[in-house]
């Protein structure tokens, strides 16, 4: 009986293994996405570019996917998260700067008067960024960001900002990576503000984060080499700056790009104008209950020209209210 | 007899498998490196940072190794390869620029008078770079470089420039990658000049190539988006610029760095001044027969301060004549 029992056991193991692999194949890689045209456009694209022998097959090294951050991977309302960080930094640094009590735009920030800040225009914003984002080493700034992001809370939900990420987009990042894609962030936000937590939150390592970048100076500090953050601008990674940042950092054109505002339009144009099957997606903020509803007239993340061009070019537009059965992981 | 025969066969297979895996373990990953202190310093470093439980263990995502290109991965004598490219471009473009026959520095280039070119100083070099490296799209420049590099030959050896790479360094790149390292080029050479062939020649994809970079402008050309190469300088990826380029592109500090000249000194300082076991290596050109012998006084690739600092800090210095039993793959 022994040999035949052993054979039966082996057969059972084989059947179980096959059953499990079928289950794995059948499992939905995007459970927070409702069935429909949007989800299908993503899955069909991934299947076509990854299937050997497909006319649209793309080799693994060329499977580059780029994602905007604010409004695409995490919430950007009522103001950009980096602005909350900036405001908190001004408050934390104020005791060392008694002159800020009367000096704009710092005085308005300390009084919580955002309109007063806006009155200072671009020069005011540059002054705030210079005071809070430059003049320290890259290591120091990274520690400041890491400390802030683990304690700060979103004013509306009371959640940490790193919980204000979109569950369907986290699933999409995983799904693309499981299919051989390299996933990048391409954001108008500061590169040094995102890198300390992008790997933990999105699974995107620092070398795959592209963002607005300032000058750096190599010098000796207390006998050890350091990189000092300077006020000069090296890359404004927004609008026309996004394809520039992509070329500078990656050196090849993405085959898929994801954004939510007109600031992402050029990245999508650059991605979807090359030959071959391409995927360009706008996340459209349509859900006033679970998130925020805004597009053409918004003061932050306006999607106007982008909506028109998406229609013209048959790009995918995600209707957050209809296409997502879950928005945030904590919901 | 059947069961015991089967058992014997299984045992034989097991023994064979074990024997093969021992052979694999015993196979020398760096066959072109002679046994000795240099080779041992590299192997010991890799073993210590990759062995689980080692006090110097480094997780895979942090295993970043950066390599200079000219003089470290391929030959840089009698002049940088990119200068040969530039000269050939001036000659190829000359029919469209009859004024170059009398206009410096172009006239000297066309006459093959390198001293005349040098007389023009930095302004002359900028004029040559502007004429040959800017004003076209990134795609066009990439095609120009790809065409040139497949046909141009080194004047001394008659070999393609991509054959003038150091066999021991190719083995080192493979060895590091097999041990979970991400390998980067960090070169004073042009980023757009290296990216078209770095993957094929070194196994280093374009997104892991950092180099001297110029401005880019996103615009529509014949109704399609394009990136135009501008004459402005965005990163001078040499000396103090190397740690800057590393931070900008990678966002974390390497744990191993390889160079051959004082232009790489700051990259090695930046790498080896962080805490933990680090590896800093200078390739010292000591082999006048198989390659070239030069260091402190050389007009290209001078290694002067670097030699002193290597001694002071106990960095590894590769003696090409003694440490390498093979220099180029074709030898």
Description of the molecule:
The structure is a homodimer of 331-residue chains. The first copy, chain A, is of the alpha/beta class. Helix content of chain A is 44%, strand content 17%. In chain A, strands 1, 2, 3, 4, 5, 6, 7 and 8 form an eight-stranded mixed beta sheet that branches. The termini of chain A are far apart. At the A-B interface, helix 9, strand 3, strand 4, helix 10 and helix 11 of A face helix 9, strand 3, strand 4, helix 10 and helix 11 of B.
Blueprint (SSEs and pairs):
2 copies of one chain form a homodimer.
Chain A: H1 2-26, H2 37-50, E1 64-67, H3 81-93, H4 106-111, H5 114-119, H6 121-133, H7 138-151, H8 167-178, E2 182-190, H9 191-202, E3 209-221, E4 224-235, H10 241-249, E5 256-259, H11 265-272, E6 279-286, E7 293-294, H12 305-313, E8 316-319, H13 320-323
Parallel strand pairs in A: 1-2, 1-5, 2-3, 5-6, 6-8
Antiparallel strand pairs in A: 3-4, 6-7
Helix pairs in contact in A: 3-6, 7-9
* Rg of Cα set of chain A: 23 Å
Helix and strand run of chain A: HHEHHHHHHEHEEHEHEEHEH
Q: Which term fits the overall shape of chain A?
A: globular
What is the beta-strand fraction of chain A? 15-25%
> What is the number of E strands of chain A?
8
Average pLDDT value of chain A? 94
The structural class of chain A is alpha/beta
Helix content of chain A: 40-55%
Stretches with pLDDT under 50, minimum 5 residues of chain A: none
Multimeric state: homodimer
How far from one another are the termini of chain A? 56 Å
Main beta-sheet strand count, sense and barrel state of chain A: 8 strands, mixed
User: In DSSP terms, counting alpha (H) and pi (I) runs of 4 or more, how many helices of chain A?
Assistant: 13
Pair with the biggest interface? A-B, 33 and 34 residues
